[in-house]
Design goal:
Elements (H helix, E strand, L loop, with lengths): L1 E5 L21 E4 L7 H11 L4 E3 L9 E2 H13 L4 E3 L3 E5 L2 E6 L13 H11 L2 H4 E2 L11 E3 L2 E3 L2 H19 L7 E5 L26 H7 L3 E3 L7 E5 L2 E5 L16 E3 L21 H9 L7 H17 L3 H11 L3 H11 L9
Parallel strand pairs: 1-2, 2-3, 3-5, 4-8, 7-11, 11-12, 12-14
Antiparallel strand pairs: 1-15, 6-7, 9-10, 13-14
Length: 355
């Protein structure tokens, strides 16, 4: 299969209005986000690029000046009425024997490690437009309190982290499912620090562009991972997975963009290892973790319990003071004592913990 890859075309800027001089031979067009503002405009633009099947995920810019969930709903409705156009947000589609798993992905602010997570979040709030330009519905799960301006609720680092965890859990679950053909993961945000230029890898804002999902690549063995967001092209491998990005970028950044970049995927190599689901916290969403803590929902599987234990370890390493624990207990309708006891049940290795 020949896959035409592009991202970050940023058609919201009039000086970047663009059409390829020549359409390359391809079987599928993959657009890895930041195509235009809004999602509907990105879809219309994508339709004009190719008459072949199109796989598209949203970037962060598609939501600027918009309500995120309403935009996603509109995008799904619009894409659903268009034959061979697949707008993926935690969704999978099989085209010509190749599996495409798609999500925006967002970020978890842990690229530089747990000690720097809060610093990265503060830096993001100061400098990233996402937290001033993307509206969300009031969200009780946001334990730090939402960003509020002019009576509206805006994206916060907790929102991005929650969505990232949901997407990572979805991707990991999909990769764990046996599939005979090649698998391509498409996200806007990058899955590894190697996608960040070396000159920026240690900066706090690097955590706004990539998260470390090497465990998903090493355990799930996708053939190809396509992403955008970082305005520098990349082509590298993690284990058996090739990671490729081909961004056009902002005005003045288009020098390394290849408008006809096509990656050819062969049939899946029989020697490639079978997927093995590792019980990291990414195996379940934050909402599912809350269900397990409260004892509601379906009976957790062994893998879900292991993932819940990893979530407990994560929370004890990131919660900085009793106020965070109290907000979580309030949200779950539990006392702090009961919450601490339940955490110790789920992860006795890191406990016991004081309430």
């Amino acid at each position: 299969m020949r896959i035409w890859i592009m991202s970050d075309l940023h058609q919201e800027f009039s000086e970047l209005r663009w059409r390829p001089a020549k359409t390359p031979d391809h079987d599928v067009l993959v657009l890895a986000g930041d195509i235009d503002v809004t999602c509907a405009k990105a879809i219309e633009y994508a339709r004009a690029l190719s008459d072949k099947p199109i796989v598209i995920v949203a970037g962060n810019h598609e939501f600027y000046g918009q309500n995120l969930d309403r935009q996603l709903a509109d995008a799904r409705q619009k894409a659903g009425a268009i034959e061979n156009l697949f707008y993926l947000e935690n969704e999978t589609v099989v085209i010509g024997g190749t599996r495409f798993i798609g999500s925006t992905l967002w970020m978890d602010f842990e690229l530089l490690g747990e000690p720097f997570s809060l610093q990265c979040q503060r830096e993001a709030i100061k400098y990233m437009n996402d937290f001033r330009m993307i509206e969300v519905e009031p969200d009780e799960v946001d334990l730090t309190g939402p960003q509020r301006h002019s009576g509206k609720v805006y994206f916060s680092p907790r929102h991005t982290g929650r969505r990232h965890d949901m997407s990572a859990a979805f991707i990991q679950t999909e990769l764990s499912q046996p599939f005979d053909g090649p698998t391509v993961v498409v996200t806007h945000h990058a899955p590894h620090r190697y996608s960040i230029p070396a000159r920026r890898q240690n900066g706090l804002l690097s955590a706004c562009y990539a998260s470390d999902l090497s465990d998903l690549m090493l355990s799930g063995h996708p053939d190809l991972w396509v992403h955008g967001h970082v305005h520098d092209p990349v082509d590298y491998e993690i284990g058996h997975c090739r990671v490729v990005s081909n961004p056009r970028g902002y005005p003045g950044e288009t020098g390394s963009f290849e408008e006809g970049l096509v990656i050819e995927l062969d049939a899946r190599n029989e020697d490639r290892p079978a997927p093995t689901l590792r019980p990291s916290r990414k195996a379940i969403s934050l909402d599912r973790f809350y269900e397990i803590v409260k004892g509601t929902g379906a009976e957790p599987t062994t893998i879900e319990l292991a993932a819940a234990g990893a979530w407990v370890e994560h929370y004890y390493s990131t919660l900085r003071h009793g106020g965070d624990t109290q907000r979580m207990a309030n949200h779950l309708g539990m006392s702090i004592k009961d919450l601490a006891e339940r955490f110790d049940e789920l992860n006795p290795i890191t406990g016991p913990h004081e309430a």
